[in-house]
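ok so i was messing around last nite and threw this chain in just to see what happens. nothing serious, just curious
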Amino acid sequence: MKTKAQSKEMCCRVNAINKRLKTLAEVENALKVLVQRKKSITIANLSNLSGISKTWFYDEEELREIFRGRISEESIQKLFNYLKQQKIMSTWKI
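result:
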């Protein structure tokens, strides 16, 4: 049987994972909107549209690498793949 501390830790972990999944979904939705509207894809645009802070984007090392160069079709696909991969990895942590 789990102790209260173990239950609380598990609950905190699940909440953190759910928050990350929500953040990833918001970024993905913002990216889809920008692509559909044929707007420039920048951290500022993604941040404004998704409501996620720019700091979050800069803290994600892979995203920083993608945004370092010019955003191309390949970069956009990398962004979608990264978001998909992160969602899958987050669900494994439960």
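not much to say yet. Residues 17-92 form one domain.
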